[in-house]
Each structure stands twice: as C-alpha cells, then as structure tokens.
Design a protein that fits this description.
About 35% of the residues are buried. The strands form two sheets. Strands 2-3-1-4-5-6 form a six-stranded mixed sheet, with helices on both faces. Strands 7-8 form a two-stranded antiparallel ribbon. The radius of gyration is 29 Å and the shape is globular. The protein folds into three domains: about 230 residues, Pyruvate-ferredoxin Oxidoreductase, domain 3 (3-Layer(aba) Sandwich), CATH 3.40.920; about 90 residues, no CATH class; about 110 residues, no CATH class. It is of the alpha/beta class and about 550 residues long.
C-alpha cells in the first residue's frame, strides 16, 4: 500500500468490448466524489486480439481537504516496477505486463482472470496452439506480492453483466483504495441510490457481478481452494461438446458393454456426436470401427497395460472425421434453438427485446457437388474448373425471420441426401484407409498403431485446410507406414510418423513435412496441379 506521500498506482488491462474505459471512469468518479485527487490515461490496444487496451489510474491517498491547497502531480504513464496493482481480464495479458517489468514481487498486487481469449498467433497454429495456462499462473504467483485469480468471464456471464463490473468488485474487495464498498456500489447504481426498487436491470446485473468478485477477492483464506476449483472448471469447459450436445451424454448399455470402462467417457462423446450428425446406423458404424481397433490393440496388449490409448485416440479423431462439416451441418447448427439462446445471452437481450441475426454464406460448386451423386458431381466440378473464376453463391440469410429460418431448416433436413452424395463416399473411403493402417500398424507394433492414430489430428477445418490435412495424412501413411524404407523396423516407422506429423502441424506450408519425409527416406509430397486461368486483356485506349 502507498505510504501516503505518493499516489496509489493501478494498471487495468481489458480487451475490446469489456468496458475498460467505463471502469477507469468509475474509479476516477469514486475518488473525486470522496474528495480525493485522481487521474486516468489509456493506451489503445491492437485489433484482431493481438493485445489489450491498458488504463493507468493514479489516486492520491490523502483527501484534498487535508493538503492545504496543494495539488499532487500525476504521471501520464506507468513506470515498470512502481505499480501498486495490476488488474487484468485475460491471463495472457497479465503475463505480458509482468514480462514488461510492470509487476514487482515485493510491491505489486495482481488480480487476474484465469479465462483465456486466444490470440491470433494461437489460432493460426494448425495443431493445438494454445499456450500453457498453468505456466502463466506460476508466473503470476512468482512476480506478485499478492495475487487473486478467478474466472472473471464466468462471473460476468453468471451475473448477466460485463467484465468491467466484475473487475470493479475485485478492486473494491482488494482494499487497494481507501474507499468503502458503498462508494463503489453507488457509482454502479447511478444517480438514484435512494430507491432500490427502481434499480435498472443493467445496474442490478452489474451489482451482482460486483458482489461476486468482491467476495472472491475479500476472502484470502479461501483463495487457494478457489483457484483450484476455477482452474478445474476451465478444463471442464474446454471439453464441452459443441452444437448443443450435453456435456456428459449417456452411453447406451449395449455399447458400453463392448468397451473397457476407461474408454467410456470419450466414447460417449464420440457416439453422441456421430448420432447427432447423421442417424443410429452411422453411430453403429462408428462403434463397429472402434471395435476393430480395440481388437487389434488387445492382440498386442491383452491386459490393457497402456490404457487402450490407441482406441482412446481413435474414439476422438474418428468421431471428428466422421462428422465432417458440410452445408447441411452448417444449416443445422445455425438453426438450432441452443444457438438462438446463446446469441440472446451474448447480447444480453431480454424477453421483450427484438434480436435480428443475419448469417452470411458463400457456398461454391464443391459444396453443392458434395450432395450430388458422383457422376453429376464430377460434371459440376469439371464445369467449375473450366471457369475463369470459381463459381460461388453469396447469401445473406436472416435466421430471425420465418423465411430465413425455414430455408435453414429445409437445408438441414437434407441429411438423408448426404449418404447419396459424392463427398460422403469419398470421406468414408479415406477413413477406411486410415483405419486399416491403424489396425495393421497396431498388430505389428503398439507404438506404430498409436502414432498412426494420432495422425487424426491432421484432419481439421474445412475447404482447402481440410483437403490439405487429408492429403498430408494419406501421404504419411502411404510413404512411412506402408512403403519400404531404409529402416523399415516398426519402431523406426513410428518415430518417422511422429516426426512427420509434428512437422505438418507446425508448418502450414508443408516445407517442414517434406523435409522430414526426405530425412526418413520417403519422397516428398507431389506438387499439386493448379489450373492456369487465362484472362482477356482489355484493349488499351487509342491515343488522342
């Protein structure tokens, strides 16, 4: 705490739309209404989640009435190592400020959210590019005099408010400023503090978020248990199923009886996803494929000493591949009631509020060809390749309207057509090749089968990203798992596949993958043909 001769210094870090500017205004208003001198400045962040906007607040710890007419001089920017507190709504932003030297271990109080909003660099990684949140927490603990960590985003969502109100409650609960709780609540309530029954819905929600954060920070004895609980909640939230599926779907008893209990958790999620995607017959195919993998794994590890890790990985990646994205799936997800509820919750719409949602689509010839029989699909794709520019149909659909929702539901009802389409057959053939390679590899060497199963990580995204991932996977299988190699031992093949997979995930262009293939005696990926499109040149205007 400040010693009474210098200002109390606070650095607030907030992302776009979280109300950081409102928070800084609140703090200055609280100080001035209490008779204290205060000042705030801000440094704008960068778009596309490459940084946060920071707000620097200084409050002189003595009231102006006791300064005998003197006025304190404030700084316009924070000084590294001279901050009394840092409050941040995102864990990585907290660590960034610590990396800039802003936090002093003997002086600085750090209040941070444990929640993450992924950066652009994290989202660009073909594999799992998320930074290790546990290491961030250790950095905060090591470089702070006192720290309070909890999920501010979850607290804000639960209260139905914005993060700025939660951050204000955390600051009030920390005792950083010499103001009572009522002073903080008054600025949230607004001008009318004498009629609680007239309190607006937004102010009431902000007070709920404020109270939640105030209690979380005020009770230091519960801090360790709170951090452990919230970090566990983060892990659980990261595994939530998408598309309105339950978090822990029930696994049918006849399916559960075929697999060891250690596989039931992930198997239930995969089974529910495939069933939701198509129909019971498709879910039965998923179970049948996994049984083949389990039998192959048991042939080399009957006791399950390795926890049936091959089947476990296949349960994950096989479900994701079998539930590939197409225009039917997109329309179904866009028209679900769960999506409407989520949108209303995100914009904090009331029961009487009107919310209009416009969805933009631009399907091309490949998306329509995917639902056509193979012969017609090939003709459509050949026609599209002959065009000067690929054909696409821009659409703007209002899912809030009867016509817009009806069109989405009509398209979503065409899942029966998916089985008859060209893409469904192609995807099943590619899945079968991967499945056969996993089974053959597992019967030869457990690690070889495990590494081939992990190659399912290469299949992700849609469009060209999805096609590139499938091509990489099949090339790795054909050249490293099946074709002759200088060192064809199963252990060597397993190491080569692991290295090639990690190279493919680390380098989207594929140069690292080609280098790994060549290093292990396999040919690089073939150069993909690209059509040459001739464009007519406009005649130049005749000279005057």
């Amino acid at each position: 705490m400040a010693n009474g001769t210098r200002p109390i210094t606070l650095l607030v870090c907030a992302l776009g739309g979280e109300g950081g500017g409102v928070l800084s205004e609140w703090l200055v208003d609280i100080a001035r209404h209490a008779g204290y001198a205060a000042q705030s400045t801000s440094i704008p962040g960068v778009a596309q989640r490459t940084g946060a906007t920071t707000y620097y607040i200084e409050v002189f710890p003595l009231p102006l009435a006791g300064l005998a007419g003197r006025k304190p001089v404030f700084s316009l920017s924070p000084v590294p190592g001279a901050l009394d507190a840092i409050v941040s709504s995102e864990l990585l932003e907290t660590v960034r400020q610590i990396g800039n030297g802003m936090s002093a271990p003997q002086r600085t109080l750090v209040i941070s959210s444990t929640g993450r909003t992924l950066t652009t660099a994290e989202r660009m990684q073909p594999g799992d590019g998320r930074a290790d949140a546990a290491r961030f927490v250790e950095v905060v603990k090591a470089f702070s005099r006192e720290h309070h960590l909890f999920d501010m985003g979850a607290a804000a969502r639960e209260a139905g408010t914005v993060v700025s109100a939660v951050m204000l409650g955390a600051i009030a609960g920390s005792g950083l400023f010499p103001f009572p709780r009522a002073a903080f609540e008054a600025v949230v309530r607004g001008s009318d503090t004498q009629a609680p029954e007239k309190l607006g819905a937004m102010a009431a929600a902000s007070l709920r978020g404020f109270a939640s954060a105030f209690d979380a920070v005020q009770r230091p004895r519960e801090q360790a248990a709170m951090v452990a609980r919230l970090l566990a909640d983060d892990d659980e939230t990261a595994h939530r199923a998408e598309g309105g599926l339950p978090l822990n779907p029930a696994l049918p008893a006849e399916v559960a009886a075929r697999f060891p209990p250690a596989l039931h958790g992930l198997l239930s999620l995969g089974h529910a996803r495939v069933l939701d995607y198509q129909d019971p017959a498709y879910a039965a195919l998923y179970v049948e494929r996994l049984q083949q993998v389990l039998e192959a794994e048991r042939s080399i590890d009957p006791a399950g000493a390795r926890g049936f890790a091959v089947t476990h990985e296949m349960a994950r990646w096989l479900a994701l591949w079998m539930a590939f994205d197409d225009i039917v799936r997109v329309a179904e997800l866009k028209s679900r009631a769960s999506r409407t509820r989520r949108v209303h919750a995100e914009v904090k719409a009331g029961e009487t509020d009107i919310v209009k949602v416009w969805d933009h689509f631009k399907p091309g010839a490949p998306e329509f060809a995917a639902l056509l029989p193979p012969a017609l699909a090939r003709r459509l794709l050949a026609w599209d390749r002959r065009r000067a520019t690929p054909w696409a149909l821009p659409l703007k659909v209002g899912s809030h309207s009867v016509a817009g929702m009806a069109s989405l539901r009509l398209l979503a009802s065409l899942r029966w057509l998916r089985r008859r389409g060209q893409r469904f057959g192609e995807e099943q053939a590619l899945i079968a090749r991967w499945l056969d390679a996993v089974i053959a590899g597992c019967r030869s060497d457990w690690r070889l089968g495990h590494e081939i199963a992990l190659c399912g990580r290469l299949i992700k995204g849609y469009g060209s990203t999805n096609e590139r991932g499938k091509a990489n996977l099949l090339h790795v299988i054909d050249q490293l798992a099946i074709a002759p190699l200088p060192d064809g031992a199963p252990e060597a093949r397993a190491r080569a596949i692991a290295a090639a997979r990690e190279a493919a995930l680390a380098d989207e262009a594929g140069n690292a993958l080609d280098a790994e293939l060549v290093r292990h005696g396999a040919p690089p990926r073939p150069v993909k043909e690209q059509p040459i499109r001739w464009m007519k040149r406009r005649p130049e205007a005749a000279p005057r």
